[in-house]
Specification:
The chain has three domains: 102 residues, Glutaredoxin, CATH 3.40.30; 110 residues, Glutathione S-transferase Yfyf (Class Pi), Chain A, domain 2, CATH 1.20.1050.10; 124 residues, Phycocyanins (Globin-like). Helix content is 55%, strand content 6%. The strands form two sheets. Strands 4-3-5-6 form a four-stranded mixed sheet, with helices on one face. Helix 5 packs parallel to helix 8 and helix 6 runs antiparallel to helix 7.
Length: 406
């Protein structure tokens, strides 16, 4: 089994990608996750100064409550460091430290705070600029009331009941949907109280309280209930709110993508899909900065990716006469092919351009490549591995290269 043709080296791919994106991550050898985002405000700290906030969060960046705190830290430009907690095997020191044993928790200048709402309010009290609560006393009181009600008004419970429960008949499902729509109607009305697209007259903690859950519901419901929030004329203000969030750089750093959200729901809750996911955003898949970020992430973290594929994708079963090194070479080749395509994007690096055409590619190499590309397409998690925009570009490119292999 041999691979014909040449590709740019990993070093050259990495160097080129970094010229087109400022996205960087800290490597965490032998740890999970294998990389971690660098807070956008970390550069503001004087040398050898510890960040004022330590955030305890989940390893996979799936927790919507952790996302709330991360969102606020990025919006308020507060330097912070992160301690990742494995939720399937929480360390004793953490369960001893945090009374609820849940994430998130945070130490704000050494003081422990837990529960996402309480952390958000504590950050607002300690770091008042930029403010995420209105200066106007009346509007400030409304904001604080809505922050509290986001936890107590039943929206989240009713929404996930509609999403996750298996109703006994169509009548029960219709009732669950009606309850959920009543709650969405309440949010729709709340978004009309003040001018602009946010809950209040400017972006605030109220938006942060709702964004992770509404993001997940907008992604999950079309697939698992055949129900759409986005594009639904009944919820025009909620859709305008999504558009307003999409203009915020901090939102792009912390949000997930809809494929990650849908894979998570199926893995965690065993819900079976009945509809189609929202399409990949073609704008994101073609943006140079997102393609470059995806290529940078793959190139910089390639050793971890290759080891994961060899261990967990099943490609080793294709080894001829036990030649695992040849399988590893094919895995590495197709990942470089993907990184090259993300950077060049003109088809020159696809098998038809550099390996003599699809039909001439060794069948075993092609099979290893197909498994590799399909595996990494579904394995990546946003924002654990890269931003949601980069994940969209990564998946679209993987589909393109996969189609060229088979």
């Amino acid at each position: 089994m041999s691979i014909q043709g040449t590709l740019s080296s990993w070093e050259k791919l990495l160097d080129t990608a970094r010229k087109h994106t400022s996205a960087r991550r800290i490597k965490r050898p032998g740890q999970s996750p294998s990389t971690a985002p660098i807070p956008s405000s970390l550069h503001k700290l004087p040398p050898n100064t510890a960040p004022p906030v330590l955030l305890y969060r989940d390893t996979n960046s799936w927790c919507p409550f952790c996302e709330r705190v991360w969102f606020a830290l990025e919006e308020k430009e507060i330097p912070f460091e992160t301690e990742f907690i494995d939720l399937s095997n929480k360390p004793k020191w953490y369960t001893d430290l945090v009374p609820t044993t849940l994430v998130p928790a945070a130490k704000i200048e050494g003081k422990l705070v837990y529960e996402s709402k309480d952390i958000l309010l504590a950050l607002e009290e300690r770091f008042s600029t930029p403010s995420l609560l209105p200066e106007n006393p009346e509007e400030n009181a409304v904001a604080r009331q809505w922050v509290e009600e986001a936890e107590t008004n039943g929206f989240r419970d009713i929404a996930y009941k509609f999403l996750r429960e298996t109703p006994t008949d169509a009548h029960e499902l219709a009732n669950l949907q009606a309850e959920f729509e009543t709650k969405l109607d309440e949010l729709e009305q709340a978004l009309g109280k003040y001018p602009g697209s946010y809950f209040l007259s400017s972006f605030s903690l109220v938006d942060i309280m709702y964004s992770p859950h509404l993001d997940r519901l907008a992604a999950n419901l079309p697939v698992y209930r055949g129900y759409h929030i986005k594009g639904n004329p009944r919820f025009s203000r909620i859709n305008a709110w999504f558009e307003a969030l999409n203009q915020r750089p901090a939102y792009h750093r912390v949000k997930s993508d809809h494929i990650t959200n849908n894979l998570l729901l199926r893995r965690r809750w065993g819900v079976e899909p009945i509809g189609n996911p929202l399409p990949l955003d073609p704008a994101d898949s073609e943006k140079i900065q997102f393609r470059a970020e995806a290529a940078e992430r793959l190139s910089d973290n390639r050793e971890v990716a290759i080891a994961d594929i060899l261990k967990n994708s099943g490609v080793q079963a294709l080894a001829v006469d036990g030649n695992i090194s040849a399988v590893q070479e094919a895995v590495e080749f197709h990942l470089r092919l993907l990184a090259d395509y993300l950077i060049n994007g003109n088809g020159a690096s696809l098998p038809g351009g550099r390996t003599g055409g699809k039909d001439s590619l060794d069948p075993t190499i092609a099979a290893v490549g197909a498994i590799t590309l399909a595996y990494v397409r579904n394995r990546i998690c946003a924002p654990r591995d890269m931003s949601a925009g980069a994940a969209t570009a990564f998946r679209a490119a993987a589909d393109k290269v996969l189609a060229s292999v088979y």
